[in-house]
């Protein structure tokens, strides 16, 4: 999506460790008009898909997913990062490894908000190693819900998450795929 790529070039900052900072429009301050354009783009791309629920993970996916949900006219549920898991069987749970924070954390979704009749479009801001997406897909599998697609704003194509998800047969639709980025020059190239 050209508008998003242009914005990444203009306002994205490449940090050491292959991390792209997009705090000025996506991860801290949010450009909701841009989110609306992104949502329209996913609506076009998933026009053939019979989706009845949007899903994301807290925190940075929520803003984008909420705008996507409004565009599709569907509910959105976000996986919560859990400090302690209630073992009364009321939630689906998955463990996610965060490379950016170098630790594991549990996420939960209540059984009330996801189930066998759901056809889910998962939305997130970044796809890198794919751990966050693996966790959400696992929760959908536990619930018997179908993952119809995964919509990602920015995929880091030089990390393996996207390739692995696609190899599993999942439909991953990223609006901008970064081929390479250089923390010395700040240069970013797209696939
Ligand atoms: P993954 O689980 O695919 O390795 O990473 C996905 C999550 O890590 C995203 O939801 C995002 O929060 C964070 N992340 C990974 N790489 C980057 C990056 O380059 N920039 C930012 N801002 N977040 C990232």
From TrEMBL:
It comes from the Bacteria. Xanthine binds at residues 20, 27, 156. The gene is xpt. Keywords: Cytoplasm, Glycosyltransferase, Purine salvage, Transferase. The lineage of its organism: Bacteria, Bacillati, Actinomycetota, Coriobacteriia, Eggerthellales. Gene3D superfamilies: 3.40.50.2020. It comes from Berryella intestinalis. NCBIfam families: PRK09219.1 (NF006671), XPRTase (TIGR01744). Coiled coil: none annotated. Belongs to the purine/pyrimidine phosphoribosyltransferase family. Xpt subfamily. This is Xanthine phosphoribosyltransferase. GO terms for molecular function: xanthine phosphoribosyltransferase activity. It catalyses: XMP + diphosphate = xanthine + 5-phospho-alpha-D-ribose 1-diphosphate.
């Amino acid at each position: 999506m050209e508008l998003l790529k242009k914005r990444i070039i203009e306002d994205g900052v490449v940090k050491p460790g292959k991390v792209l900072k997009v705090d000025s429009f996506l991860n801290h301050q949010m450009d909701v008009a841009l989110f609306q354009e992104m949502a329209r783009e996913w609506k076009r791309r998933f026009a053939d898909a019979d989706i009845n629920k949007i899903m994301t993970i807290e925190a940075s996916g929520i803003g984008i997913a909420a705008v996507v949900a409004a565009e599709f006219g569907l509910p959105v549920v976000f996986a919560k990062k859990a400090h302690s898991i209630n073992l009364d069987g009321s939630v689906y749970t998955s463990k996610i490894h965060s490379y950016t924070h170098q630790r594991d954390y549990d996420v939960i979704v209540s059984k009330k908000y996801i189930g066998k009749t759901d056809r889910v479009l998962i939305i997130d801001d970044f796809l890198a190693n794919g751990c966050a997406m693996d966790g959400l897909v696992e929760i959908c599998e536990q619930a018997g819900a179908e993952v119809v697609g995964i919509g990602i704003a920015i995929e880091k194509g030089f990390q393996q998450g996207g390739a692995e998800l696609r190899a599993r047969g999942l439909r991953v639709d990223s609006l901008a795929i970064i081929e390479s980025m250089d923390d010395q020059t700040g240069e970013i190239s797209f696939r």
